[in-house]
């Protein structure tokens, strides 16, 4: 057996060492930022913090939680995530059912499929999209965060591939009992497809929580920003503009610990759902990519 | 028509999705005529002057836009190559670990960065990669001079590619691991009996069995050849590194949205969309032909 040989054992030790090192590298940045957020401002400014807090302090979190702009942006993010996910789920669930039918049953299927696929392959680009949003009166509206992303062809494909795996007999039995398509969809398909609905919900939640560019582009008032956009303007744009400042000015503006706390709070919901994400995403990712 | 009596529920179910597609995918496509206009927001599409292909000529005459196209190609191609090589090797190495618990723990850790947005990661990286940041302090302890990773034109592309691979390699490993799980174990047993060592087995069994999925992933990535990653670049770059780090998407944002050159911005966007579409269609065709891959 190869794994009993001495060269393989040496390889194995190095291999485990290398992979563990890579794995640690993937989470070090988060640990570093967490350490900063729990440290005192003085220690952070002096650059003393590695992977463990120095002068443990909750000051940064207190300041963050007392910042009304921050709290408002969290609320907006929650609202867009809940509404956006609900809308995406409803639309995806409804659209995937007819698209999962065979041509024999639903002749127009291929025309519709092409409409969906083409929208994935080609787009008008940023400027025409911006103009359309403007014409629709969605600039500075909350709904600009929810409506444009409501249909995602990738999620529709995921859902319809799942529907195709449902045994035909279920549907035929429902048909014989006199159920129409709507009844079949909601009474038969809905209960058995809960796992894939959960997958799509997770995809959509992560998308909405992480989206920042739409807020930056279509909302002019920072009071309307969702959390991701808020963080983008407060942490990243701020940082860019400090590059041309004198050290004295930077000292006054230094917000390292508060920034770290805000970053960590922004990542927290993703970390919370991560155990579920990992399970469902792996399924979603391999679905349709590896086929026998 | 008698068909419609049977299939009306299908059309009704598709209606909400189609309305969204019409408004947010197909309506914007009509706006590409702005690429052939000197578009002025106050004159609208009807009132703006037609300029033919001037915007496109301008695109290939302006030095900054050519530089931007080149930057995009370089960054995107390097990302595609390393986002294929690293997960490929990582999957093979991870597959060698026989302790399931350790394997799963490593997987859990490497998938994580994929789910965090570039705003979060950008915020962390700007902090860590600063001249007096964590990374430079670690480097200083082994005697390396401070490096301005995000402000130095010689380092910016390197930083962008490494950080992108760092974020995505774990997640990209998933498809390779799935393919490895499907390899017939009797192949290895037969090789073992024939006296092949583990390296020989990897070379003649593991790697060939990963070939089809590698071809699929690689060809499908072709469609991204003009996508150098807007989210990442936008959150990491700054005027100091425009020369080597500015890409098509960030350039469009600045010229069209911030400077108001709408017609020009549409033209670059159209240039990108058309080339991407052609590449996507070709790559799907190839993936289907070589590896029998279909999305539907």
UniProtKB/TrEMBL annotation, chain A:
CDD domains documented for this protein: TM_PBP2
Alphabetical keyword list:
Cell membrane, Membrane, Transmembrane, Transmembrane helix, Transport
Location in or out of the cell:
Cell membrane
Q: Which InterPro entries match?
A: MetI-like, MetI-like_sf
- Principal cellular location given in the protein's record: membrane
Superkingdom is Bacteria
Q: How does this chain sit within the bilayer?
A: Multi-pass membrane protein
Q: GO CC terms for this protein? A: plasma membrane
Q: Which residue ranges run through the membrane?
A: 12-38, 74-99, 111-133, 139-163, 184-209, 260-277
Q: Which Gene3D superfamilies match?
A: MetI-like
Domain (ABC transmembrane type-1) spans 74-274
Output the GO biological process annotations, alphabetical, semicolon-separated.
transmembrane transport
So what family is this one in?
Belongs to the binding-protein-dependent transport system permease family.
| Name this protein carries in UniProt | ABC transporter permease
Q: What is the originating organism of this protein?
A: Paenibacillus campinasensis
Automatic annotation (TrEMBL), chain B:
Please list the GO biological process terms of this entry. transmembrane transport
GO CC terms in record: plasma membrane
- Give the membrane topology, semicolon-separated if more than one: Multi-pass membrane protein
The family database entries (InterPro entries) matched by this protein are listed as: MetI-like, MetI-like_sf, UgpAE/MalFG_permease
Q: Which domain of life is it from?
A: Bacteria
Q: Where is this chain's protein located in or outside the cell?
A: Cell membrane
Parts of the chain that traverse the membrane: 12-36, 68-94, 115-135, 169-188, 209-230, 262-284
Which UniProt keyword terms apply here?
Answer: Cell membrane, Membrane, Transmembrane, Transmembrane helix, Transport
**Domain ABC transmembrane type-1: start-end pairs:** 69-283
What CDD domains does the annotation carry? TM_PBP2
Q: Which family does it belong to?
A: Belongs to the binding-protein-dependent transport system permease family.
Protein name per the record? ABC transporter permease subunit
Q: What's the source species for this entry?
A: Paenibacillus campinasensis
